[in-house]
């Protein structure tokens, strides 16, 4: 249940913030100087797979004009609510589990969380690459990619990302700038997605690949006025499917008051999940004490009715990160020992490996502080009272 992996103070804070280094307003404004609709009267669909509070995508919409529909996804609950109030269609959850097709967005704003995670074989991988793998295909050929990424991603962390970008963008059409705010060493890569013949492998644009693979101290600044030859965002259609197979309390709270058809959507999500996962049968009779666990594991999701009412019940497991110092962990451990529970915890010395974005509250200097990140899976059961305006009645 408990594992601990501290990668150092910078990374710990990065994880807790879930990579929230939103695009600064000046960078967004200057990127807008590079964008214009291709056809003023046709609808454009623009997409941010990690929309944060929705600030950046809303600015792009306001710049492109009324024929622009915004799609976003955000994992953090509060930021989702904020995004939901700004953008046209927003989902709450992990965008790596988005159910949607390819080739529908006329523009993708790609500023995912930055950092390293480990796969099930304990091998590190970059988050930026994970998000790229899931969402690069959403842009239509000829559509515009705006990527805001740390420069060291390409020349130090993941050289293959440079190769991906050099095969993805139409040769000779791209531009690379330094972001207006230099705190996080971000660069802005902008260009058109290539049109490519079916079943062919795109040749890399060596010029772009070389540029990204070499640390550049003299990249141009983003323009501070509208350019004469901007990138033209093409007309694009809304995706036929855009959904997440999960229901969260934030989704219910936001969507239900606006959309009474939401109940049907919830049913579809549950049905879809039931189709995906085979229902299991118990080897022994299920006792009453098993029920909370079964619910939390999603094994008993669905509509439940008894004399007291009609409820939608949903179990979920949330991953929660706590960053402790050695001292605070020791205190917790003692409290746990008292309660005769001994979670298995590994302690690593926090090392400042450098290179990750630092929030202003975090020290930039190499740290000798021991930090311990505890990753805990918490089970929650939610129940909505269907006959009573979908009130959320229980969270355990
Ligand atoms: C670097 S911020 C970018 C925000 C916004 N796109 C912008 O440009 O200002 C990344 C955002 O991704 C969110 N995020 C992290 N992991 C996510 C996931 N698995 N699915 C969706 N959003 C995620 C974070 O909560 C954070 O708000």
From TrEMBL:
This is Plasmid-related protein. InterPro entries: DUF6094, SAM-dependent_MTases_sf. It comes from the Bacteria. Pfam families: DUF6094 (PF19587). Gene3D superfamilies: Vaccinia Virus protein VP39. Residues 13-199 form the DUF6094 domain. Transmembrane segments: none annotated. It comes from Acidithiobacillus ferrivorans.
């Amino acid at each position: 249940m408990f594992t601990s992996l501290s990668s150092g103070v910078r990374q710990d804070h990065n994880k807790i913030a879930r990579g929230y280094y939103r695009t600064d307003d000046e960078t967004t404004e200057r990127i807008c100087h590079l964008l214009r609709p291709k056809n003023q009267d046709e609808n454009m669909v623009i997409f941010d797979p990690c929309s944060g509070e929705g600030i950046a995508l809303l600015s792009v919409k306001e710049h492109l004009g009324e024929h622009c529909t915004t799609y976003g996804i955000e994992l953090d609950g509060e930021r989702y609510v904020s995004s939901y109030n700004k953008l046209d269609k927003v989902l709450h959850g992990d965008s790596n589990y988005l159910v949607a097709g390819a080739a529908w967005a006329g523009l993708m704003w790609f500023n995912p969380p930055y950092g390293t995670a480990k796969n099930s074989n304990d091998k590190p991988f970059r988050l930026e690459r994970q998000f790229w793998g899931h969402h690069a295909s959403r842009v239509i050929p000829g559509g515009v990619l705006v990527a805001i990424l740390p420069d060291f991603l390409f020349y130090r962390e993941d050289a293959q990302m440079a190769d991906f970008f050099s095969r993805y963008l139409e040769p000779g059409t791209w531009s690379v700038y330094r972001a207006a705010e230099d705190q996080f060493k971000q660069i802005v890569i902008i260009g058109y997605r290539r049109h490519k013949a079916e079943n062919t492998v795109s040749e890399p644009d060596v010029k772009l690949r070389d540029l990204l693979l070499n640390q550049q101290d003299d990249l141009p600044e983003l323009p501070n006025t509208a350019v004469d030859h901007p990138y033209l965002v093409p007309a694009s259609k809304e995706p036929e499917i855009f959904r997440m197979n999960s229901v969260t309390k934030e989704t219910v709270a936001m969507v239900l008051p606006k959309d009474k058809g939401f109940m049907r959507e919830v049913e579809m999500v549950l049905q879809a999940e039931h189709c995906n996962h085979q229902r299991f049968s118990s080897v022994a009779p299920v006792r009453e004490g098993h029920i909370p666990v079964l619910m939390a594991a999603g094994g008993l999701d669905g509509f439940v009715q008894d004399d007291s009412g009609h409820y939608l019940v949903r179990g979920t497991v949330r991953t929660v990160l706590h960053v402790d110092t050695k001292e605070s962990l020791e205190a917790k451990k003692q409290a746990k020992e008292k309660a005769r529970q001994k979670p298995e915890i590994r302690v690593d010395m926090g090392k400042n490996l450098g290179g990750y974005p630092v929030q202003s509250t975090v020290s930039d200097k190499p740290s000798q502080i021991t930090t311990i990140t505890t990753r805990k899976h918490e089970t929650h059961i939610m129940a909505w009272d269907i006959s009573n305006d979908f009130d959320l009645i229980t969270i355990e």
